[in-house]
Write a structure and sequence with these properties.
alpha/beta, four-stranded antiparallel β-sheet, globular, binds pyridoxal-5'-phosphate
Amino acid sequence: MKLNEHYKNLQESYLFSTVAHKVNAYAAAHPSAKILRLGIGDVTLPLAPAVVAAMAAAVEEMGRKETFRGYGPEQGYPFLRESIRQYYARRGVTLAADEIFISDGAKSDLGNILDLFAAENAVLVPDPVYPVYVDTNVMAGRRILFADAAESNGFLPMPDEKVQADIVYICSPNNPTGAAYSREQLAAWVNYARRRGAVILYDAAYECFVREEGLARSIYEVEGAEECAVEFCSFSKTAGFTGTRCGYTVVPHALAGGALNKMWLRRQTTKFNGVPYIVQRGAAAVFTEEGEKQIAENLAVYRRNAARLCRCLDGLGIWYTGGKNSPYVWLRCPGFDDSWKFFDYLLEEANVVGTPGCGFGKNGQGYFRLTAFGGEDTTAEAAERLTRLLSRG
Ligand code: PLP
């Protein structure tokens, strides 16, 4: 037996464990401190009542002989695929229901899709970004190139014809920077991919936060994208499904002459047995009139939190991206070159926890991520403490 030696090339991710360790140590030494956590990108509001009711009804169905269901279709129940098809159609994107595959979340599919591509493909990953793209490719031994994001490009790298990539990751709105591409900018990436015969893996996990005109919520808003892009999306951030688990991936028939859709179907039917019926019923309730209204109320809370953090940084004159079309606010650490030093300063002087930007790639050094997924009171108090602390120096 030989092990997959590529695993040795993985860099240990100490980001969230180090954050937790530092926060726990501080809390132990200062038991009376009220620590405000704006670090982890997890939601805090509960599932919408319409989702809970749909799941409860599905539990009842599963408990009755006449309505019990065993194995479902691996690619998802038709009722949910159809709801998602209509969700795209309302935004002007035409998809066929069999181009939509239901999964237990975007993370699994982002990793699993790599089964479909040869190991010799070169991969282009933005820096900084969600670390899963790099790690899943390191595991497969692929060559990884980086697209540098920086203040100079608004943390939105654009294609460079000199770079020869076969698989291109785009995350918009981006985690951690909150920066979101416009349709015109995405069109440049689509052109790049089509010219090269490359595939774009487009992560739209935060699409529901996009509000500004001209910014894309789906890569299929760009003409020709169906010939070169797979899109990943999730109910995690839209509808609070981080613990419930449901997402979807769009693999158009126009990609690779239909080969990719067929291969993904084959892969899923072989290695995956579908998302629980109960969860899919809950996900479908997200698209009902009632569900949409309730979810919009939850998203409004996160948006208000983001706006609160942006106002705080505006007042302090600190450079940042995100916040407007994203639950993440990405700021330049004021007076610090090192993200961890700024982390310690905020923890010790304001008892506020964020995430050091250097944990998302080398270009994140000197930057910091705050999330809008915390409670409203927590966020407001954190903003006040930041204002008090950072206007001093
Ligand atoms: N993609 C991005 C950019 C994320 O930030 C996350 C989670 O934080 C995911 C995907 C994972 O989503 P899911 O919960 O659907 O697996």
